[in-house]
Write a structure and sequence with these properties.
There is one protein chain. The protein is α+β, with helices and mostly antiparallel strands and about 575 residues long. The protein is about 40% helix and about 15% strand. The chain has a five-stranded antiparallel sheet with strand order 5-6-7-9-8. A three-stranded antiparallel sheet has the order 10-11-12. A two-stranded antiparallel sheet has the order 1-2.
Amino acid sequence: GGGLMLGHSGAAAGHGGRAVSADSAGVGGGGAAKEFVPGVGLRSASEGDGIREFVPGVGMTTGEVSQQQQQQQEMAANTATAGPTTTGAPPPPATSLSSARTLHSLGLPEDLWAHYRDLDMESSRQMDPTDPRHRAVPPGYVGAYPLDLDEQRDPGISNKKRSTFGYPTMCFRVTSQDDGRLYCLRRMDSVRCVSPKIAASVKEVWVSAVDPSLSGNSRNSSAAANAAAGIPPPRLVDHPNMVRFYKAFVSQRAVFFVHRYHPGARTLLERYLQGGVPLPLPEDLLWSIVTQLVGVVKAVHGSNLAVRTLQMNHILCTTEAGIGAVGAASSPVGGRVRIRVNCIGIPDALEFEARKPLADLQREDMFSLGRVIMSLATGTEILPADITNNQTMAQCEQYISGQYSRSLLSLIMNLVRPRNMTNDPPTIFDVAGMVAQRAFDELSAAQIAVDKVDESLANEYEAGRALRLLLKLGFINERPEFGVDSRWSETGDNYVLKLFRDFVFHQADGNGRPVMDLGHVVTALNKLDAADDEKIVLVSRDGRNVLVVSYADVARCLENAYGELCDGSVPPASIRAPPMGGGSRGY
């Protein structure tokens, strides 16, 4: 006698939501079964007491045996011959829903998981601590890593060549000591035309600018309502197709510009013209890039500013987190991308004393936009000097007409070689009307990406709930001591948590083989997080203790035990490592 006979009956009780009589446990040669009462301890149950059930705030109570409970007892007696179980009650019979759950279904899809893993690895790289380039980083920033691909391959090459702005430039990914966030820090040496006052003035112009399309002055009724309610409109630097400009300052006899860091970003030049991407690029990809660029230029020009950095090596692209990450693995061109105009504010600071009229700067933006689109369509970087070369333009026009639609060709040629009396390109508002039809396609693709990210976020929310519960259980279960109490995790309500851990993770069949039912684990943790009223049977490993509790009871025990640990905890900084070779404890 004394073998554990309640494993299978516990499963029936767990499903039926009722208790199992302690007499059916077959414990200890016919002696009275002992049951655990949270907050009281082990208590003997005399024969004939009937079913004892745990009631929050009351303890174990005796109730009449219902017909359903009698059926559960008969099920326990019929299944007892299957053999003892090694731990707790087995899980409910596997259903098509529970058995379909896998570890990969608990979080991000595999493609998105790999995408974010690569971005995290990209953000974690650092230079050797002895690298002399650390001296180029001003105080307040640490963890520098060069972002220039040439600088990564040939350290120190930035000192040997000048950037497109005309000054020796070094670009780093750094961590700010003020807020711990990652930033893109660009250092320019030998700049004598930028003073601290100029740097502060340029920063103020861009940071205080408001996106006109979302301001209260527009015809957007919701934006007007927000303005009337005192809600500030979104700033221009937060435009989704612009790398946010934070500040510019002078230090170490150099000028520094701080922009937002986007891990995994590559310039259009690196990705499509130097990255070995097969040409020609798909037209829908080109229209997507055009639509995004037109959107950001329209916002900047509407704020009475000029972009001034519409060049292939100053426009960043990153793989879209939604459908872009999926297409990146199957498409030779890498799937959909998010376009962001980089280096905002730098030309304004470097040419502050020799500023041109705003109309001229915006006109140059339109010419630059046309050259960028033509460069992507032809697979060759088109420079300003190429526009005046009739033979080059004729070849480009012939190639584009043979690969793309007439609407795309017309847009490009109207931008790079306007055929009007003033030879002025169309304004950005005219171009916005020309690409309006394509904007609907871009909107649909963006909503599909949002749906996929939203679905993935829901999966991560479910995994996050389970993680919080597992962390709390990990702090409590099998804790060797708590203060002077060496059996803290084995007594009181904490004992319920130990049995619940076995119920969730240590299931076994009648032959002692482990039951790896992830659906049962996920369901049990979700019900624990929701403090469900459903009752389950918890059985000790030796079969002598049987508890009928609800998920709400287990949740209360978990919160009480975790709160007790938190109240008696000490800050991590106060923990001192034991001397080498000393102490009998291994931790």
